[in-house]
Amino acid sequence: MDWRRFAIIAFVIAIMFGTVVLVGSSQNSPLVIITSMLATTIAVATPLTLGALSGLYCERSGVVNIGIEGMMLGAAFFGWLASIYMNTIFHMAPLVSLITGVIVAMLTGGLFALLHAALSITFKVDQIIGGTVINILAIGITGFLNRQMFFGAGSVFGGQIPHAPGVLPRIAIPLLSKIPVVGRIFVQQPITWAALILVVVTHFVIFKTRWGLRTRAVGEHPRAADTVGINVTRMRYLNVIIGGMLAGLGGGFLTLESISSFEPLMTNGRGFIALAAMIFGNWTPFGAWSAALVFGAAQALQINLQFFRTLIPPQLAILQNSYVVGLAPYILTMLILTGLIGKTIPPAADGQPYIK
Amino acid sequence: MADNTIVLQAKDITKRFPGVLANDKVNFDLRKGEIHALLGENGAGKTTLMNILYGLYLPDSGEIQVNGQPAVIHSPKDSIALGIGMVHQHFMLIPVFTVAENIMLGEETVRYGMVLDQKAVANRVRELSKQYGLEVNPETLVGQLSVGVQQRVEIVKALYRNAQILILDEPTAVLTPQEADELFVIMRELTKRGVSIIFITHKLKEVLAVADRITAMRRGEVVGTTTPAETDEHKLASMMVGREVILTVEKAPAKPTEVVLNVENLTIEDDRGVEVVRQLGLEVRAGEILGIAGVQGNGQTELVEALTGLRKRKSGKVVLNGKEIPELRPRLNVEAGQAHIPEDRHKHGLVLSFSIADNEVLCTYYQPPFAHGLQRDQKAVLENAIKLVERFDIRTPSPLLPASKLSGGNQQKAIVARELIRPIHLLVANQPTRGLDVGSIEYIHRQIVDMRDRGVAVLLVSAELDEITSLSDRIAVMFHGQIVATMEADKATRSELGLLMAGATSVVPDQVPS
Question: Does the interface predicted TM-score (ipTM) exceed 0.90?
Fold first, then answer.
């Protein structure tokens, strides 16, 4: 990550925060608004951060993964399903049910990733097609099972929406969370904390460890890695599976941490936005995270503006239309992907199967 | 120096690929502290044999012994453990990694079981580079190093793994003559310290200069083993090819006439936006061959692409037969009488999945007799192909076979046929004989000289200095995107050219012509 890129990110986030502060300052102090924006931004950015880290492990090892969207969707569904089973059928405590849900979500992501790995590494299927298969598969499976299990006559839950175990509890950082006003930022739910920790861990793993060196080597020049005795296939499989599990964690965020229900297609393009964040972050964890924050800020803008809708001045009436504001993340994605905001350099062997 | 202990022995190695017997009962041995050259044309099976010794391929049958013990080599890991190191023809280095990272890859020194110990590795690298006189800085990114230094990194990488047997696969292909000489000094130094070296090459002069013993291979078989004292260039060449070879191209003095190609102030950027050709000017006259010498990567590729309309020009003028040629209009170039033998015959020379017949009309398919209006005339296309296959000796069972089925030499002949059969004024040939067997090289050189004699202007770009000196009438040396010198071919010496290729601005008069 170069400083120019960070500067662009800081600038874009500042504009979004500034907009809300400007609109809402007659009702709330700017500090309250900024805190609220920050807290929302970090939380909303979580699935994007995890998705971006997922893509990072895959692509650093040389496998393009556009199936993150599907992995998240599948994980969101199966994680949620597991938590409901635990809660209503096995009568476990809500927290135990939710933790089981998180584990199942990660395993689901890992399994989808195993499929992607087999397709793209062993069978050398075009990796874009492999990813598309995952996306379509996930939409089909989750949509079908959702209807069959919850809505059909004679379905598992008898057509009744079961009692979900709620969402994961907030964890407050001692002391920091006690700071007046700003303290709110330090009260977040577990997957959000996990995502932040994983950003640091991933940076360390990719750039400071043996595992990371070998991962980058197979993503840059697999033959060179092969000639020094590194098993290219194994490295790629494991990294893709790690990536899948992170995407699964991101999916779990949606149904176990954010809201306590599942809707078909609920990932709503987050997997793709996550990939855009990874690309904008130039395949580095901190870069990807800060890019995810931009998208998070765009969503926070939309959410926070709704509180102040009546205050929006007539000349900015366009901001009253939540569709227009809601489009911001997608427009950003397009801008970034068309390369308007600086050139990015992918790993040299990204997307190329290794043929001995 | 060499004693007679045999450190590595390959017995009756056979390796078959679909349709090819790459190694046929090959026997080869290496003595401690010697440089054993393995000589052969492309496709003779040298690289296959070395890949077997290094564990990249498994032999179908045969036995390998290392230090007298039978060795099982299933992967590079096994060969590294046995003390075998290999410097591949295409370097196995990662440009975005530092020297130290590249060297340690696969043999990392770690703390706490996983954290890289960059410092320890850097120290070890410094130690090795001092011990063997191989200067490298462990902290530099490999992508910023020159090819010669990258090769040094590869050698240190092998020594880092305690290699006692070093395989060098075509190590001089990418070097200037001076860099090659430096490499030979390093090789001698290594053998003094007990390292044994297998030196793979197809350059006869180098073999005679540096090897203790020479083994020649042809079509997967070992032809014989000899020493530099017992042999000479001609004997080696006929061992390699299996018949008498004319090593020099016979040609009459050139009779250049009017200027055909005139290039002025040409500046070109590469894909990353870096200026790789700067303010370049040159002219080629009808009836002469202008050879562009230079180490690969000094802008030759981009220059040829710009001249043939395949790459944008940042500034500058290209005039062909008195008419300025607009950029990025390759068809206009073709119609103005320019022929192009591209550097990469698979990427830019042929459509591999098309038939040979279709490939032969790639420049002219839209003109009569191959097309009338919107309709193509397949019969004319086929007749044309049959004629060219016959005339240019393209060995194929049928002109309707996809071009991918031809051997490299025949693919190149197919391109030459397509380009030279048209009425042309200018031939731009970039690496026209790269990777070809001696027979095809002879043939293509003959064709190029014939075109010159018929009054075509020829611009020849090659990284093989021998090719440049034997074909050219005038030689221009390219360095860092500029022509640093132009001279008459018969007045140029190898060492002078080598210095210019390495970027020396003024050349001291040559004392010992080589």
Answer: no
